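Run folding on both entries below.
>entry_1
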Amino acid sequence: IVNTYRRAEKQAKMDAFKKKSAEFESVKDYTRAIQYIDSAAKVGLKDDAVGKKKNELVKLKEAQDKEVAKAQSIEKLLNEGDSLLALFLWKEAEVKYQAVLKIDLKSAKATSKIAAIKALKDAEAKRNSDLAAYKTNRESCTKAASGGKYAEALTAIKKCNALSTLPAVLKEQIPKTIDSLDRLLAEDNLRNAIKKEMETCRKAKIKDVYTLKSNYERIASLIQNIKNPKTQQELHQDFDKLIIEGIESQISQAYESHSKKQYDKALASYEGIKPLIEFLASQEFKAKKSKDIDDKINDVKKTKLQDETDFALAMTKGKNALD
């Protein structure tokens, strides 16, 4: 009876230990579950199930330890990667995240971080590419503009508008450059138009002084719209040459009238030249031509007076002869 009682008591104690072990096993506290199953084995009753359960718990504990070590290793690598990423050390950070994927291929955080690094690398590559393109376009623009090829310069600088990742300080310069080139191009087009106008006037070989004056007024007005002093000076020099050609043509016509003793016509022609002289930009040319015309007018007047005197004298002699 005593033995039976004692056995029953041990059995109850063993069952209590087994129950407690099962409770810790259910919450995956395998260390305590093993402790209680060991206590059950030490009660002194033979139970093969207890030995099997311990082996099972030991394996579960080993697997759990491995998972914990794995999780700790992953956490360590992720933390190191995050620290490197914060310092913009993308290559080194990516090595850490790749190491995580070797441990856990399905790590969402490592995968997202690698994707973020790729995006950052792509963005950096785009920025570098845009900066290189900006440099090339800017150099082409400067070279073309220096050679007066403003349309070509505009084409080059406008390509920079497509470069989306340029720093703000560079983006701000693009519209300013375009605006400057637009003005230069407009002035260059005006310059070409003025030159064309002068050439048309030259080829027309206009003989009428009033038509010449009208043409010169139009050209002079156009030149006043040129803002660049150097360009304006160049155009004035070309215009002076054209004006002198016109003046010389008018002088030839006046001289022809003078030669034919058409003195009033010659005087009118010389007087008509004076307004043309006023279009000359060169004060030296203006003074020289004014003096030249005044001298020629005086010559015509002297010749006219001499002819009139000679005619009067001849008439007097003729009358005296008749008397």
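>entry_2
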Amino acid sequence: YSTAIEYFNKSLESQDIKDFPDRFRIYLRIGDCYRKKGNYKEAWTLLEQARDLLGDDAPLESLGKVDYREAYILYAQGNYDEALKIGFSAYRRLKHSSEHREVADVQLLLANCYHRLGLTSEAEDFFMDSLSSYRRIEDRVGIAYVYHNLGLLHKNACRWNRALASLSKSLELAKSLGLSQHLVRVQLNLGVVYAKLRRFTDALSAFTNASKMAERLGDQDKLTKAVLMKGRTYVQCGEFCKAEKLILRGQALANDLGYGRESILADEYLGELMIGRGRLQEALANLNNALKKAKQLAPEGDITAEIMRRVADVHYLLNDTRRAKKMISEGLEIANN
């Protein structure tokens, strides 16, 4: 992506290009490169520059393209409600256009927003809509993305065999199409499923592969995720020194780069680590910090309910059954909704 950014910037120096559509299209491309590198601040700046080039009579689909990319960044930063709102704005502007691939991309984004907000039925509907849209235009890349996200949906519903089946389909498509970045993403989530199945050796291998590929590609977002998940797996294996080093590195990356969800996960995993070491007050401090962030980010989301469960565990270990029951009740209410 760095090479692509360099060439795109050179093309902006040409005296022959028009602000619209030429410069507008190049700004979107450069912004896409930064977004795929996980550099969301730079990507957002490019989108603002692209939007500034659009006049009052700009085509709706052009506005929709900017909306979609802004929504994607908000989603990546963990701002799911705002991402959903802007994503629907993009969908309304694009759905009757000839930009079929962009429509499918937006449907996939909306599905992911619903998924993160814990709205499984709505998420599955939009996943299937996006799968149909990608199949209609024979977009195998898009199909690989949808299978990956269906794998995540099944994973979160604890349907492990279906999760592995969907993720494996996505992995094979990614390998055949040479989708390096997507391979990182699929490896990450295969690692999560392996860890859930307590196949820790397979999980560590998947996370190691993902972190190496992400670092080579300069993808800070996925590198952060891989480092954190590898650290958590070491917690589960009881190798606390290795775990702490990795989780602290992931926490620093998340905080420096503005990755909201990963910042929460780092606090949660540090809490798990302290539980493993028997340092319960430190565990509670980390988990309460994670819970505070989660309530701001996604008050009705899966991550909030999961952290509440862990906070309840610590209160129980501290013999504070009243607070444990209260936290369990609040977490169950979110989970049931």
